[in-house]
């Protein structure tokens, strides 16, 4: 998928423009300050197909060597259902979310409880339980 214009609405659901929201994380201009912001920026990375960002923000102990993003998946929206920890002063946190998509003309959603860790000021995705 092509990159979003900075003045486009950010797909993460905050209502902000992409340039004022997730683009600065994708461009390595800043770190996501909380686990929820990292979750939102990773969702946006899935929307735009930004595989390097997804790998870079995956914890080194669980990071795969590569990703195989399905270009046929069209992401429709993100709902943050719950968060625990993951704040400015926390070292870990969880985010429960639901992501909506269309794949091969069929609508679906994925609910996941994701774990995050912060090392040296940067949050990373550790793993998640789908369902």
Automatic annotation (TrEMBL):
InterPro entries membership: NTF2-like_dom_sf, YchJ-like, YchJ-like_M
Gene3D superfamilies reported in the protein's UniProt record: 3.10.450.50
A Pfam cross-reference name: YchJ_M-like
Matching SUPFAM superfamilies: NTF2-like (SSF54427)
Residue span(s) of domain YchJ-like middle NTF2-like: 34-128
HAMAP family the UniProt entry points to: UPF0225
PANTHER family: ADENYLATE CYCLASE-ASSOCIATED CAP C-TERMINAL DOMAIN-CONTAINING PROTEIN, UPF0225 PROTEIN SCO1677
Family: Belongs to the UPF0225 family.
Descriptive protein name: UPF0225 protein JAV76_05270
Species per Swiss-Prot/TrEMBL record: Sanguibacter suaedae
